[in-house]
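Researcher: Structure prediction, please.
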Amino acid sequence: MALRIRPRARCYLANGEDMKKLVCAGEILVEIMAERIGQSFLAPGPLVGPFPSGAPAIFIDQAARLGQPAGLIAAVGDDDFGHLNIERLRADGADISAIKVHRGAATGTAFVTYETDGSRHFVYNIKQSAAGLIEIGTEARALLAGADHFHVMGTSLFSPETIAVARAGIEAVKARGGTVSFDPNIRAEMLDLPGLRDALHFVLSKTDLFLPSGPELFIFARATDEEAAVREMLERGISTVVIKKGAQGAVHYDQAGRTASPGFVVDEIDPTGAGDCFAAAFVSFWLRGATPEKALRIANGCGALAVTKKGPMEGIASLAAVEAFIETAETGETE
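Model: Predicted structure follows.
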């Protein structure tokens, strides 16, 4: 079944124009985390969670919290984990009309440990979960019919079925004259999945805004230095490239040149979801016609706040909260 919601009030920019509708498709899951650094799943230990998660869900939730019209095509089980995610997205203003609830299927899960070197270890159940049942049904087609922009997450291209959904979303939005953004977000072990490399290059060929993290840029470029690799992307017809650099901030490239924006210094509690929050903020403000400087600044603020709480969505903030954080960080004020 699919949940139905009343249409949200239309959103407008300061000049009175409609705000563009942003849609993403992909996995919804919960994360359950080891409480202690260095803790292993090879022995019993304390856990915290469940937390709402899934890169597309984090992305859409952050966009919605910033006031961007945003909806998600996804599938969950008819269980507590699925309803936990749906209620978080609904509460934060996302369009949940195309999230299907499947009886007899379990919502996806990720169990996470934190290593002493700062890395993380995951035990996933995504492909075999309800997330693997995602499809372009009646509700998804209705959502896409009103979409101006489609965002693709590389993590969501984990099966031929999910690749087909991404292709359908891209084609529907492009047919309406809309735009596409692409965050590769690719783990090395995913690159050998059936059809993934072809899917990545198809998505890139349709991309207007490309958002790789550091070395992900070189999965797609022949060049071995950043600026030359970016030139390759721009020559392919991509209009904007934003390189995410974590705590160091981000760099924006387009035909007009290069714009760098530093990150904000915060105490990191949990890095999960920071890149998704950054991307959601940048895409939202790019769609609003913001300058690169403003879009990067808001995106860096969202990414910084995301790491200050345990749980992928727990650090997601409203635009007012992000702007207040940035003002305090830039003026050096403290409470």
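Model: The first helix runs from residue 55 to 65.
Researcher: Thanks, that helps.
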